[in-house]
Amino acid sequence: MRFLHTSDWHVGKQLRNHKRDDEYAAALAEVLDIAKRMAVDCVLVAGDVFDSAVPTPEAERIVFNFFGELVGAGIPAVVIAGNHDHPRRWSAYAPVLRHIGIEVLGEPATADDGGIIQVQSRDGSETAAIAALPWVSERKVRDFESLMVEGKHSEEYADGVALMMDHLCSALPEKAVRILLAHAYISGAVVGPESGERPLHIGDVYAVAPQRLPQAVHYAALGHVHNPDQPALRLTNAQYSGSLLQCDFGEAGQKKRVNIVEASARKRAKVEAVELSAIRQLRNIGSHRSGVTLDELGRAAEGVSPLDYVKVWVKVDRPLPGLAEQVRDILPNAVDVVVERTADDARAEPERTAGMSPADLFAAYHRAAHNDAAPAPELMALFNRLYEEASGAPD
């Protein structure tokens, strides 16, 4: 059987107040074209379909138009919710989408209660059994354990998620093509140094060790990490497909792709990465603590495509009124302009906090209060749990 593995679309996410709806639609049109051209038997969507738990009508139109075109091409799909998706909203979508061949799982379920989804090959010669594991909140780990017949209980979140994977994958029939579809963080995964995927749910306490991934499956289709190139997974049968677009400037330069997976019940899966060409590129000019002057910016701008989005760090030795406008006179597609002062002035300025996540703000406070020492993983886990409870995040 042949699968197309994709994830982390984040449809509806803006870039510094720039709407990207046309880009999402174009990228999904390319994914659809690849699925048809490669004659895949099923599309696997490993979570974070939307960027928000309450997506805009335009974001929903883009996504459901894609599913409609997919069904029109005779290609089924299996979709799980990620941490950006509202699990109960996807559970509400599920009965309707199931009628047209789109299987959806919004919340974790046991093997006997919908956690295993079966899909037939085009010619009917093979069956795929897919262990589907959406994003798991800490409370869902405890709820799931109370239903597990094995009677195993975890001491940590990551251990609980690994047990859930084991439970589902152990129920997959031996003669089927066995797939794990999960939205989870695997320890050792590499993310961009300034990527928006870093905060809140990426950390050692939340990371499943690569050796805990079930080896009985032919392929583990993972979502949650936006960078598809992960050395930590090279010795496993698991891969991230990465995000649909370069979601923020921490992902500048990353090649975005989908994975085409050839799998049979009788042999090891083969994976081919198909790069997406329809997306706009994000570029960084300068860097934190290494900004460019306006003269240097003029030279750097010569190699930038007018279609690229650009983030610029500008180095100045004194405040300059209208600096952002001067930058955009040189580089009209600069959507983010960051002013970097010279060393003497920089020491006098407080740390920039605009755009930082609550987890990053807490970590910055801890470093300031404890001689630049990072908070312990256990402390970050406690902060994340308390923040989830206080903010009423859906689970």
Structure description:
This protein is an alpha/beta fold and about 400 residues long. About 30% of the residues lie in helices and about 20% in strands. The chain has ten helices and 14 strands. The protein has helices spanning about 20-35, 55-70, 85-100, 140-145, 155-170, 295-300, 325-330, 345-350, 360-370, 375-390; strands spanning about 1-5, 40-45, 75-80, 100-105, 115-120, 125-135, 175-185, 220-225, 240, 255-265, 265-275, 280-285, 310-315, 335-340. It has a six-stranded mixed sheet. A five-stranded mixed sheet has the order 5-6-7-8-9. Helix 2 links the parallel strand 2 and strand 3. It starts with a strand and ends with a helix. The relative contact order is 0.12.
Major β-sheet annotation: 6 strands, mixed
Quickly give the structural class.
alpha/beta
Q: What global shape is seen?
A: globular
SS element count, helices: 10
Beta-strand percentage range: 15-25%
Q: List segments where confidence is low: pLDDT < 50 over at least 5 consecutive residues.
A: 198-202, 345-350
Radius of gyration: 22 Å
Strand order of the largest sheet: 4-3-2-1-10-11
Distance between the termini: 33 Å
Q: What is the typical, i.e. mean, pLDDT?
A: 87
In sequence order, what are the helices and strands, one letter per element?
A: EHEHEHEEEHHEEEEEEHEHEHHH
What's the assembly state of these chains? Answer: single chain
